[in-house]
Write a structure and sequence with these properties.
This protein is α/β, with parallel strands linked by helices and about 200 residues long. The protein is about 30% helix and about 15% strand. It has helices at about 45-50, 70-85, 120-130, 145-155, 180-190, and strands at about 15, 55-60, 95-100, 140, 155-160, 175. The chain has a six-stranded parallel beta sheet with strand order 3-2-1-4-5-6, sandwiched between helices. Helix 1 (about 45-50) runs parallel beside helix 5 (about 180-190). The longest helix is centred in the middle third of the chain and has 16 residues, at about 70-85.
């Protein structure tokens, strides 16, 4: 789970984004590229964060794979579609990390306990190692308890998005929409890092 050595190199901050319900409109087990639609208004703040050196990284639990509800072959076209939708806003993802696991799923190879399924921080740790990101200056943005817990466990700040705060969840910030959360992060952070 470690990435390339970056001794002496400046590590950049990242914004880790949950996919379904945060970066994209909520859908129940989306399984086709056309199921993905971006949340409204996220292009400008993502572009601003990218411009100022933030890595933009998707970290997504996809238990539909373990349940046999999503075909493994559909994942690459779905993420290609996601990249195309973002490219229309001049936004480029630095990475997409996916956890297919779910204990008790129907497909044995994915029906295991793992260290990558949020709320475990494995995907964030792996991405930070791969891409040279400083977790302490990064953010985890998501719409669920497991997203916020993963951020806390990885040592990032956290942004919860959704129609109302979740009981017992204490994020760094809460906003009704992803666009509002990203705008708040951009406003508080820029210029945190520039090339």
């Amino acid at each position: 789970m470690t990435g390339p050595e970056r001794t002496g190199a400046v590590q950049r901050p990242a914004v880790f984004l949950d996919r379904d319900g945060t970066l994209t409109e909520p859908r129940h087990y989306p399984s086709r590229p056309e199921d993905l639609a971006l949340q409204a208004g996220i292009g400008p703040p993502l572009r601003a964060l990218q411009h100022h050196g933030f890595a933009l990284i998707v970290v997504t639990n996809q238990s539909g794979l373990a349940h046999g509800l999503i075909d493994e072959a559909a994942i690459a076209p779905m993420h290609q579609r996601l990249r195309q939708l973002l490219a229309r806003h001049q936004v480029q993802l630095d990475g997409i990390y996916l956890c297919p696991h779910y204990p008790g799923g129907t497909l044995p190879r994915f029906s295991v306990a793992c260290s990558c399924r949020k709320p475990a921080p494995g995907m964030l740790h792996r991405a930070a190692g791969d891409l040279g990101c400083d977790l302490s200056s990064s953010w985890m943005v998501g719409d669920s308890v497991c997203d916020i817990d993963a951020g806390h466990r990885a040592g990032t700040r956290t942004a919860l998005v959704g129609p109302q705060p979740l009981a017992g969840v204490v994020p760094t910030l809460y906003r009704t929409t992803t666009a509002q959360a990203l705008t708040a992060i951009a406003g508080s952070e820029i210029p945190a890092y520039e090339d």
